[in-house]
Structure formats: C-alpha cells, structure tokens
Amino acid sequence: MKIFYFGFYTKNMNPNDFVTFPGCNTKMGYIIDAIKENDIQIDVICLGESFKKATKKYIKIDDLEVNTFVSTVSNRILSKINLWGEVSYYLLFKIKKEDTVIFYHSLYMLPFFKIAKAIKGFRLIIEVEESYYAAWGKSKLLINIELMLLRGAYGYIYVNDILPNLIEKNHPYVICYGGYNVSKNNFLSRNEKNSLKNLVYAGLISEEKDSDIYLAINAMSFLDNSYKLHVLGYGTDRAIDNLNAYISSESLSQKVHYEGFLTGDDYNAYLSNCDIALNPRMLLNELSNYTFPSKVLSYLCTGLLVVSTPIDCIKYSSVANLVSFSKDSTPSEFANAIKNIDYSVNPTDSVKKLHRDFVREIGVLLKK
Fold first, then answer.
1. What is the model's pTM?
2. What does the pLDDT look like over 107-143, one tens digit per residue?
3. E strand or H helix at 173, and its extent?
4. How far apart are CA 151 and CA 153, in angstroms?
5. Could you say which DSSP state residue 281 is in?
6. What are the distances in angstroms from CA 264 to CA 11, 23, 183, 196, 298?
7. Do 326 and 309 contact (CB within 8 A), yes or no?
8. How far is CA 329 from the centre of its chain?
9. Separation between Cα atoms, residue 265 and residue 87, nearest integer Å
C-alpha cells in the first residue's frame, strides 16, 4: 500500500513556477511532517497552474517523501483542462486499489476524486479546510451541495470539531486546526503590570470598513495609551492607503501602526515580541462553522495570549480554554476582552500535546 497526497503544494520548491498558495503550503507541510514522524512513506502530487509550458518533475525530498510536480501548458484556458487531465490520468492509471489518497479539498477538483474512487476503489481521505461556498458567502443551498459532495470518502482530516457533524462523523477522521509547531524563539514574560502591551493583528486588510481589521482598530479607541496595535497584513495598495488614512483620521496614529507584510521566520520573530494577538472576525458565526482561523494557531504556537470574537469553531475546539472571547463583535466589547485577558494562560504546552496527539491519530488513520 502506498500513500499519495494531492494538493497545491510548493513548500519545498517550485520548479514549474506554479501559482503559490501559502496557507496550503503551511498546512500540507505540517501534515506531511506528521505522517513522516510515523515512519510512513508519502508521494506528494504537487498540483498547480503556471501558464507556461513545463514538464512533469519527480524530486526526492528524503527517504520518506517524493514530490511529483504535474506538467503545465502556457495557454491560460487550456491550463485548467491540462490539470484535470493530469490528475485523472494519475488517479486512474497510477494508483492501485490498495493505495490511500489524501486530497486537499478543492471545489473544482473534487468530482474527479470522487469518480476515480468509485472506479478504482482506493481509500480516499479528504482534507477539509473550509467550505468554499461558505467562505464566498453563497446560499445555504450551495453550501449543502458542497457538503453532500464531500460525503462518502473513507476518512477525513477536518479543520474543526463542527465539520464532522455537518459532513460525515461515522467514518474515520482526525481534527487538525493548523500547524502545531511551537516557536523556538524565546518568549517574553507577559504580565498585566507591563507598562506597554503590544497587540498584533495579522491577516487580510480589506477595503471594507466592516471587516476584521477595522474592528481591531476601532477597539483601540476604547483602550488607553498603554496598548499599542501592530498590524501585519496584506491587501491591495488601495486597501493599505485607506487603512493608513483611517488611522490618521481617527487620531490613532500613536496607538496603531501598519508594519507591513511578513512571512516565515520574520513573521514568527515579530509575533514573539508581542503580548496579545487579536482574532476579530466579522464573518457570520454560522459561516465560520465551515473553517478555522489559522492565525489563531500561529499566535498560540508563538506563546501569545489570544483575544477573539465569539465564533463557534473556536469555542467548541480543544484550544477554547487558551483563548479569551469578547461578548460580541462590537469594538467596545472587543476592547473589554483585551483589558480582561487572563495573563496566566500558557498555550505552548497545550499546543505541544495537540501535536503529539495528531501525530498518533494520523498514523492510526493511515495504518488502518
């Protein structure tokens, strides 16, 4: 039996110049490492489109991992058709009945995996990181259709504890909120008596005023000058300009600073020098049930105290006791949660346990 893992993965390298998806790289990379901790060999089928012609490439990463990069074509219209063909050929002619296929859920690729499973009979494990229709704010009907299409796999890797009840709870599954990689940076001594408390928001900077980042900024109006908010985010040039203009117009320039967009070690190092991390979510709670904010794991892995709006995917998770929740999504209540945060929480030991548990559980799932 062999293990194959299909997804848009370019973490190790990107020889065919695929369009990259950082979130996918981070989550797949963590799961791959966890599988290898069980001494299980894995073939990662790296999917992608690059809009230039490139041949298929096989690259051995180590004794347990091989990355196969699909070929690409230069025509933008034919690029997706070529990817469908590459995946279909692999599923139908390279994978045997006794093999296991892990598929990182992609809405437009899902039917190919379900059809191939019906034809070949291999074990299909679907990794569900989100409902795309929920993330796009689509109708309940479309969300339910997507959930229906996800049913019928052998097993699942779910991103939160709610999804099993919505998709398939009677089949084998594991839960993985994100990468449980505790930072090796030295953690600050965080104390409520510190004269300056550094807050951090990391994530999307939207142009909409009713978005997550603006909830974080507006909450600063209800905090005194002992709090400073550092914004690490990405967005359009217009969104960044609007953000800086808004900070100035609200007379918050001394309390809120946009620090740019950081990744990798630079991002982790910056987080480790902060005290409190913010997870303001303006997405409807019901729609949040179909995902899990990966930034929360990044925060916890760096030893940060976390304040979040009250969304069920966190409240009903194994990290709920590590997070302080506001009563609602108003700036005043979010600020109150920041002021009343529990400084005695030490998240890193809990995250290390989550890692040990996941390594064991993914090993059991794949060895059944």
1. 0.91
2. 999 999 999 999 999 999 999 999 999 988 889 999 9
3. strand 173-175
4. 6
5. -
6. 11, 12, 11, 26, 11
7. yes
8. 22
9. 33
CA 353, 358, 363, 365 torsion-angle sign: positive
- φ, ψ at 324 (rounded to 5°): -95, 130
Comparing CA positions, the residue from 239, 223, 247 lying closest to residue 331 is: 223
Which tens digit of pLDDT belongs to each residue from 33-75?
999 999 999 999 999 998 889 999 999 999 999 999 999 998 8
Q: Quickly tell me which residue has 């990744």 as its tokens.
A: 263
Length of the chain: 368
Give the SS3 label for residue 307. strand
List 158's β-bridge partners, or say none.
128, 175
CB-CB contact of 103 with 115 (8 Å): no
DSSP of 104-138, one letter per residue? E--TTTHHHHHHHHHHH--EEEEEE---HHHHTT-
Round to whole Å and give the CA distance between 368 and 366: 6
Q: What is the DSSP string of 47-112?
A: ----SS-B--EEEE-SSSEEEEEPPB-S-HHHHHHHHHHHHHHHHHHT--TT-EEEEE--TTTHHH
Coil vs helix vs strand at 202: strand
Task: Read off the tokens for 327.
Answer: 């009563």
Looking at residue 20, what DSSP letter applies? P
